[in-house]
Specification:
single chain, alpha+beta, NADH Oxidase, 4-stranded antiparallel β-sheet, 3-stranded antiparallel β-sheet, 6 helices, 7 strands, 35% helix, 20% strand, binds flavin mononucleotide
């Protein structure tokens, strides 16, 4: 039995589901995977991700397994030197009510005479509107090798992972950064220790209405291509 030698240069002949059928000089077909995942899937989640405040959540409870999935994915974010600077405190199954009430008090204490009754009420009501409240902590080692902004950037990447996971789960999420989160009262409330900064509050809940649409500037407004 004779074998036919195909004299073709190595080239990409077909790409089906991320698999390249490349032929070597010998004509032997080599299957090489070029895409590790379906890009359109991840693109859909990235573009569908939206910020939804607790005022737009239903009464449906979020199960702990979903929160664990969200936080585990958060910890897979890039972080320089594997500092893993994120810390989380989860308030759910009732404890979010007390947390929201304390945050409303903190806001009023900090704003003093400037405090708005409407904002205080909104912060309080977010305890009943949201199913889960997660305090986001940044544990930066000031004596370490890396500047604080890099740990903050890592935490932001972790929050994006949280948002994306919540979107895939059909959950609304809001990363909120009111000014009182940097107060001493907040540090005491969370009991994280002096070196941990609160970088925000992450609210979670099932949406009560339609999923909102987003918009962004087209790429040409934010990109310059340089080539020789
Ligand atoms: C660092 C950071 C802080 C934010 N803080 C708040 C906040 O305090 N309150 C709020 O309503 N949204 C906050 N957001 C969410 C933005 O308002 C939201 O991402 C923006 O409006 C774009 O909408 P989208 O997330 O649906 O694309 C914050 C987002 C980031 C990245």
């Amino acid at each position: 039995m004779s074998s036919v030698r195909l004299r073709v240069k190595p080239s990409t002949l077909t790409t089906v589901h991320g698999w390249d059928d490349t032929r070597a000089e010998s004509g032997r077909a080599i299957k090489r995977k070029v895409m590790r995942h379906n890009v359109s899937d991840i693109e859909s989640v990235i573009r569908d991700r939206r910020t939804l405040p607790p005022e737009q959540y239903s009464d449906r409870k979020v199960h702990r397994e979903l929160v664990e999935q969200i936080l585990t994915n958060a910890t897979w974010a890039p972080n320089h030197g594997l500092t893993q600077p994120w810390r989380f405190t989860v308030f759910m199954e009732g404890s979010q009510l007390g947390m929201a009430a304390k945050m409303s008090e903190l806001y009023q204490d900090q704003a003093g005479a400037q405090a708005s009754e409407q904002t205080a009420q909104k912060l309080l009501a977010r305890g009943t509107r949201s199913s889960v409240i997660i305090a986001l902590g940044l544990d930066h080692d000031a004596s370490g090798r890396f500047p604080e902004w890099e740990d903050r950037a890592a935490l932001a990447a972790a929050v994006q992972n949280m948002y994306l996971t919540a979107t895939a789960q059909g959950l609304g999420a809001l990363w909120s950064t009111p000014s009182f989160i940097s107060s001493k009262g907040m540090v005491d409330l969370l009991g994280w220790g002096e070196q941990v900064i609160c970088a925000g509050i992450f609210y979670l809940g099932y949406p009560s209405g339609d999923w909102p649409q987003g918009h962004r500037k087209p790429l040409e407004y934010v990109t310059r291509w340089v080539s020789n």
